[in-house]
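Lecture 7 notes: from sequence to structure.

We start with a single chain of 192 residues. Read the sequence below before looking at the structure.
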Amino acid sequence: MTTVILFHSALGLTPSVIAFANALREDGHHVNTPDLFDGAVFNSLVEGIEMRDNIGIPALSERAMRSVASDAKNIVFAGFSMGAAAAQMLAATHSGAVGCVLMHAALPMEALGLATWPTTVPVQFHSTRLDPWVDRDVVARLSDRIETFHPHWYEGAAHLFAEENGGEFDKEHAEAMLSRVRVFLANPQRRA
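Now the structure, written as tokens:
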């Protein structure tokens, strides 16, 4: 089975993130959920973004890098929203990466200092079509530049639609995303 490093959103390590991780553990995967906020959990993105900004992106990046051993192998990096940035950075740069799951966010490769994406690291992306936090032009460019980029679009404009205690929770979308992530993790050579 696969080792999954699952990064939380700006809401923190919420029960929904833990439940998502537990669902993947039920499939036999080893799932690590680093707590980048040292236990702080928020009910609104505004509060969480304030915490993110108080800690600072460089410090959060350092915390994310410390969450995985440099010699670890067979890792899929995954993240929700803010956590997708950490997942994308590590999937692009860690020698043990075999996959990347971006939920509700994606960065341009230039923001990661990359000219190309590693050909051995397929990417699965999830977002609603009208999510105001997701730059669809960035996603289109990633899709053009990464042969193994697999976007999954859901109807609506919700951002954290898998966050049960959030105001945007959509059970149908959340279940579909979890199902697609499970398929991605189950097939290391032909991820979709």
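The chain has a mean pLDDT of 94. Keep this in mind for problem set 3.
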